[in-house]
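Re: the request from the purification team.
They wanted to know what the chain is likely to look like in 3D before they choose a buffer screen. I agreed to run a prediction and write the result into the notebook, where they can find it.
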Amino acid sequence: MRYRFAVGLLVLLAGCDQPPIEWRDPAAISAPPPASHLVVDSAGHAEFVPDSIRAVALPSDPRLCAASVQTVLATSHAYAIWWSVRPDSSAILYSAASSDSGRTWGKPAAVDTTDVSSRGCNRPPPSLTSVGDDMYSAYSMIAPEGTGVFFAHTMQSMLHSPVAVIYGDRLVAAAIAAEGDRVVVAYEEPNGRREQIDLALSTTQGHIFERHTTATRAVDVATSPAVAMAGQQIAVSWVERRLDASASSRIVRVGRVTW
């Protein structure tokens, strides 16, 4: 059962106190190389660095969407997550663990089986991160109760029920970062026509997302989020597109967390 009340609670809490992030001005950042992810340090310096796992073997799944596979190196295992398409073109979100840095993978475990779309592999890939040996994932899908961005995680190998981050009109790209008990999901705004990047913030390991805030400015036309966190620093990166679609560039915005 999803915690539908979470989205409503966020609306009630929003604006009750100071903004959760004190933002700096956005700045240009080098385009991410293949197989890389965003990081930020305690001084607020952000950059894209190569992934810890490269050229890994794909998990064994005949219906696997290869472009959707995401991997992360945890403390003692590597994890993979991916979409697997059913015969009716809906999909199951699977994960698997590896004890040899991704050369071989254990038996896949279903993370979320409730997708009811007919998109096949034409859907945003999930996002994946870890804290210790716990796995955290954010993903967009069409659930029975509506289209939205969702969060799922494992703790001590136990999968917790997925949580709704936000519902909307369309599938969108999402990214995730976590540190300690804090989880941040960055996502393309799924409602309306404005292209912006919003954040959902949790201080309870993602059991509930207490706050939503916007990372981009009113003048930004933003897609393809990435997010990173270190101490009180948070970095959000996106692709900035000109209104006439003639060019695009990669932008990063760093802020200090106040929550």
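For the purification team: The chain has one helix and 20 strands.
Please add any questions underneath this entry.
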